[in-house]
């Protein structure tokens, strides 16, 4: 993919995400390229998170013991966790969609999930630059990034599985997110991963 193709695909993703997803799937990317894209995306994302923590450190003593701060200081560990998160998201995108009559495959779901990660990386880079110039705008971009994630997930799920109802897909995405979050919280609690609240 040339840089011009990349720019065109980014623009299409914002204008018509379903068409972008269809174009990605139709491009016939080999499975190896999809895995390489995943590795590159999570690595760059972790490095950007580390860069952000270095550029905008919290005051001394603030956030001591925070798991997020610990992760951002160890970018490769964060990259590994993001890798697992993207694979889980791709598996859910494919599996849950097929449960409701979709026809998408895990390989295509992986490709689309990686592309969402790439688009969010662009937003993350803009957010870092905005924090340097206009700190107030960075917070708004953070909220927009969350909205963008859900919007792209819904539109890509429609393209992947051939669904037509955006609201139903959105409800499916939200329901799946809550269910997975609940299960993960139970697992975390059972393994004692939640920090104890000081008395």
UniProtKB/TrEMBL annotation:
Q: Which domain of life is it from?
A: Bacteria
* Transmembrane region(s): 35-56, 76-97, 109-130, 136-157, 169-194
| Yip1 domain: residues covered | 13-186
Instruction: Give any Gene Ontology cellular component.
Output: membrane
Membrane topology, as annotated? Multi-pass membrane protein
What keywords is this UniProt entry annotated with?
Membrane, Transmembrane, Transmembrane helix
Quick check: keyword Membrane in the entry?
yes
Pfam families tied to this protein: Yip1
- Keyword Cell wall biogenesis/degradation belongs to the record: no
What is the annotated localization of this protein?
A: Membrane
Q: InterPro entries under this entry?
A: Yip1_dom
What name goes with this protein?
YIP1 family protein
- Taxonomy of the source species: Bacteria, Pseudomonadati, Pseudomonadota, Alphaproteobacteria, Rhodobacterales
